[in-house]
């Protein structure tokens, strides 16, 4: 089956086209959609693209970060001001994938992919949705909860720049140096007078979409980042998760190792 | 429906008609006739189809051919100059970095993209540059050594 490729100069026009055709998919970097096309996915009848320059817009100020949905992992790695995201971007595939893979695409990557989206979740990111009649802002968590429904087009992502060294990330894989996630953990850990205040922890590959570890976040509130302080959080680390059994790992294994890696991450210990 | 596209391939202007939705790998092999590019998985997983587009490594199997209009594409067919092999090719021969050879075109192009940007890479840089390319024969070490040799200018021409 031949697909129809439609390219739009304006993102708003692409959003309109996407919303009007049931079998339409938006093509960003191609690492997911082209794979589906190569497999002759019958659900894809039309490919919608946009050459709108706003997609690759990247702005970093002292307080806020804005990333166009088309910003690639390679572009993030080239931006010194985004050094706190470099470990996350570097975990997305090899260099050839990172040249293509986009921020927006990662938000829709099926589990066990989507480690970058999990990091954005830990950063309390919001997304700007493109539409034919303008844009509207939405918490990323809300988008991830309904991403399977409808042809949503993300224009950009924004979040407050975290304090230096407050974002921690680990990706657990079975192959090195690069492999698909068994799981990933992103944690923003703001400390005030040695106590956690407003911690954000997000998991990749621990559910149908990246998700927040809200029970662990609550258990960390007001605690210190030492073995005794984090024990209550570790006890509820897997609460609310729904990991998959797949070729990479079983759901049981993912739940078993989650507290171990969360412990290492919170204590700042090295990871294999 | 076919779409006309134009791009530069190894320094030559190319015009081709591509099927709507076709990937660059199939376009290079079937429409243009550059058989130096190999297909492995068509999933963006194995790295065998790596080419260099505008100086950056890309997986041609998950690159929409239409998106390459006006771009400069390099494949392994463009590496040698007449009878003279590229230093990477010579180093791969000297280090026995190819056994079955199927991954070699992708390995060479991923390595070329690295050396074009970073002529003096560390071993860690080379490992990262090749981490998206799978080889089931060599165990990787001869390939990494070959890239480091080529960067140091240690490889001698054997062609």
Which descriptors would you attach to this protein?
heterodimer; A: 272 residues; alpha+beta; Uridine Diphospho-n-acetylenolpyruvylglucosamine Reductase, domain 2; Uridine Diphospho-n-acetylenolpyruvylglucosamine Reductase, domain 3; Enolase-like, domain 1; five-stranded antiparallel sheet; four-stranded antiparallel sheet; 11 helices; globular; B: 159 residues; Ubiquitin-like (UB roll); DNA polymerase, domain 1; five-stranded mixed sheet; 5 helices; 5 strands
Q: Could you please describe the fold and organization of this structure?
A:
The complex is a heterodimer of chains A (272) and B (159). Chain A contains 11 helices and 14 strands. The model of chain A has no long low-confidence stretch (mean pLDDT 94). The longest helix of chain A has 17 residues. Chain A has a 5-stranded antiparallel sheet with strand order 4-5-8-6-7. The termini of chain A are far apart. Helix content of chain A is 31%, strand content 25%. By secondary structure, chain A is α+β, with helices and mostly antiparallel strands. In chain A, helix 9 runs antiparallel to helix 10 and helix 10 runs antiparallel to helix 11. Chain B has 159 residues and is of the alpha+beta class. Helix content of chain B is 31%, strand content 17%. In chain B, strands 2-1-5-3-4 form a 5-stranded mixed sheet, with helices on both faces. The mean pLDDT of chain B is 95.
Spatial gap, N to C terminus of chain B: 44 Å
Q: What is the count of DSSP helices of chain B, taking H or I runs of 4+ residues? A: 5
Number of helices of chain A: 11
Order of helices and strands of chain B: EEHEEEHHHH
Going by CATH, the homologous superfamily of the largest domain in chain B would be Beta-grasp domain
């Amino acid at each position: 089956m031949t697909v129809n490729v439609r390219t739009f100069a304006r993102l708003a026009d692409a959003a309109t086209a996407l919303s009007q055709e049931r079998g339409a998919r938006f093509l960003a970097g191609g690492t997911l959609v082209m794979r589906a096309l190569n497999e002759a996915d019958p659900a894809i009848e039309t490919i919608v693209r946009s050459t709108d320059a706003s997609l690759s817009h990247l702005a970093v100020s002292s307080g806020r970060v804005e990333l166009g949905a088309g910003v690639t992992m390679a572009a993030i790695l080239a931006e010194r001001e985004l050094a706190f995201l470099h470990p996350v971007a570097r975990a997305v595939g090899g260099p050839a994938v990172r040249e293509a893979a986009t921020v927006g695409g990662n938000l829709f990557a099926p589990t066990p992919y989507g480690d970058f989206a999990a990091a954005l979740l830990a950063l309390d990111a919001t997304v700007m949705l493109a539409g034919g009649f303008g844009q509207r802002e939405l918490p990323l968590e809300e988008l991830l909860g309904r991403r399977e429904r409808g042809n949503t087009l993300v224009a950009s992502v924004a979040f407050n720049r975290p304090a230096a060294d407050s974002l921690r990330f680990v990706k657990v894989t079975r192959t090195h140096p690069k492999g698909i996630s068994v799981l990933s953990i992103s944690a923003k850990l703001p400390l005030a007078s040695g106590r956690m205040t407003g911690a954000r922890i997000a998991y990749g590959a621990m559910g149908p979409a990246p998700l927040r570890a809200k029970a662990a976040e609550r258990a960390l509130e007001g605690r210190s980042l030492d073995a005794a302080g984090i024990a209550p959080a570790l006890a509820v680390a897997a609460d609310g998760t729904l990991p998959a059994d797949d070729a990479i790992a079983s759901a049981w294994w993912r739940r078993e190792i989650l507290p171990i890696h969360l412990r290492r991450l919170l204590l700042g210990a090295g990871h294999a | 429906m076919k779409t006309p596209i134009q791009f530069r391939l190894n320094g030559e202007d190319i015009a081709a008609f591509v099927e709507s939705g076709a990937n660059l790998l199939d376009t290079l092999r079937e429409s243009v006739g550059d058989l130096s590019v190999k297909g492995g998985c068509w999933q963006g997983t194995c790295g065998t189809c790596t080419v260099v587009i505008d100086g950056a490594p890309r997986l041609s199997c998950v690159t929409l051919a239409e998106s390459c209009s006006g771009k400069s594409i390099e494949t392994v067919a463009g590496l040698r100059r007449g009878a003279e092999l590229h230093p990477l090719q010579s180093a791969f021969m000297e280090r026995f970095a190819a056994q079955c050879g199927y991954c070699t075109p992708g390995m060479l192009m991923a390595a070329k993209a690295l050396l074009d940007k970073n002529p003096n890479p560390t071993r860690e840089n080379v490992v990262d540059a090749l981490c998206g390319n799978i080889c089931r024969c060599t165990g990787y070490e001869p390939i990494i050594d070959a890239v480091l040799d080529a960067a140091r200018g240690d490889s001698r021409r054997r062609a």
